[in-house]
Amino acid sequence: MRTEDLIKNLAGEAPPVKRLPNPLPRTAIWLALSLPWVGAVVFIMGLRPDLAAQASHTRWLVEQSAALATALMAAMAAFCAGVPGRPRWEHFLPLLPLAVWIGALGQGCIATWLSYGPGGLSLTPDWQCLPGIMMVGLGPAVAMTIMILRGSPIAPTTTVALGALAAGGLAEVGLRLFHQVDASLMVLVWQAGTVVGLTLVASFFGRKILRWRIAAPNTSVMKSK
Fold first, then answer.
1. Spatial contact of 76 and 93, defined as CB atoms under 8 Å apart
2. Verdict on whether the full-model pTM lies above 0.70
3. CB 88 within 8 A of CB 155
4. Cα distance between residue 11 and residue 132, in whole Å
């Protein structure tokens, strides 16, 4: 069979492909699917009693807003990474809010050091952070996995890492609504560190989660050949 004829047969037998929505509405869908889970976990755990007082602190609001922005930008970047032809710079969308988040925590560490000296930066184990973030982030992670599987695995490691960062960032926002640990160093090490660690771990499984699906050979084309 000539190459031209083979291409025509393949094109004629190819099933229609439904185009994915743009990354922005997909991010909105992911957030809409994730928030009920996060809200349910926070409801079960119970809001922290000092939430109103914390919400009046500018630094706390900046940290939470930056973490939420990191989650949303990472989700959008993950959806962009699964669409062929989109620019690579979109993969770096969460870097700015992530820098603001880490910077706000770092500024809090400096302020604590200036106020209380080195003793104010004591670090104690917080074993609730890892299971707490994993519990809150389970729903967002499942929703993200289902949605990125619909894209093309052209950058599997980057896509999965960004998806994990999105789920972890949203989980951190939910965690601080019921977990009473607000010392900047503790949050930086145990909460932000957990989010970054889970992101790195997830990236190693990118090629296993997102793989090219090989379609079964077209029998009509094989016969005609």
1. yes
2. yes
3. no
4. 50
